[in-house]
Specification:
By secondary structure, the chain is of the alpha+beta class. It has 5 helices and 11 strands.
Length: 236
């Protein structure tokens, strides 16, 4: 059976993500666990993959099977120690975006997406700082370090809508902080700030097969809107 590493896990709702040793990612739920039910970010697991979801997930026990190319014993113990220390983090604090957050944001985004989008995020941060008094772009910190970010914009009558609203452009959470409610803190603070501005609705777009993000937004109260996003590809 294939093996992999738990790259994301939310202990509150039991949803997580396994990055297989072949580089593929597989969503799973705690209910799929067999044997030892304990799981955490960084845990090594083997799983039975069927379709889009692993049908069975089993955490590798101490002294379980090892393969060439796996971490040496000292490295594995260090990862375990980091996971243990990370299980009792400080509280999540949310503040307004600052210009010096860009480097941390690019690093987090690269861990999540697997590619560097420094130019894109630089433009988004520059635009957000020009409207910084509105405080709709936010950064979350844990133990004094950037753990996630949320970039949002306001619109007034665009797309034929008569009422002002807000759009979440990008949200990113450091995978090493998965399960620590960082994304929840960001969205809740955004909601508070928007209510203070008299904004009644916030929207975003999600890839239809981004199951992890869809589950998260569903927990935050998002639902399909009454409008369709249409696209037409233009030829050369």
């Amino acid at each position: 059976m294939p093996e992999g590493t738990v790259s994301q896990f939310d202990p509150h709702d039991g949803a997580g993500l396994i990055r297989g040793d072949d580089g593929r990612e597989w969503p799973f739920h705690r209910l799929q666990l067999r044997g030892d039910p304990e799981v955490y970010v960084g845990a090594r697991v083997w799983f039975e993959a069927r379709g889009e979801f692993p049908a069975r997930v089993v955490r590798l026990a101490e002294g379980g099977p090892r393969e060439a190319g796996r971490a040496e014993e000292g490295e594995e113990e260090e990862e375990e120690e980091e996971a243990t220390c990370g299980s009792r983090p400080g509280p999540v604090t949310v503040r307004a975006l600052r210009g010096d957050d860009l480097e941390d944001m690019v690093a987090i985004d690269e861990r999540v997406t697997g590619r560097s989008r420094g130019a894109y995020l630089g433009r988004r941060v520059g635009a957000a700082l020009r409207d910084s008094a509105l405080m709709v772009s936010l950064v979350a910190e844990v133990d004094g370090r950037v753990a996630g970010f949320l970039l949002a914009t306001l619109y007034y009558g665009e797309f034929g809508l008569p009422e002002p609203g807000a759009v979440i452009d990008t949200i990113g959470v450091d995978p090493r902080r998965s399960g620590q409610r960082v994304g929840t803190a960001l969205v809740r603070q955004l909601e508070t700030n928007l209510r203070g501005l008299g904004i009644q609705a916030v929207t975003t777009e999600v890839a239809w097969d981004d199951w992890g993000l869809l589950r998260f937004l569903g927990r935050m109260g998002f639902a399909p809107s009454g409008r369709l996003c249409l696209e037409r590809r233009l030829g050369p």
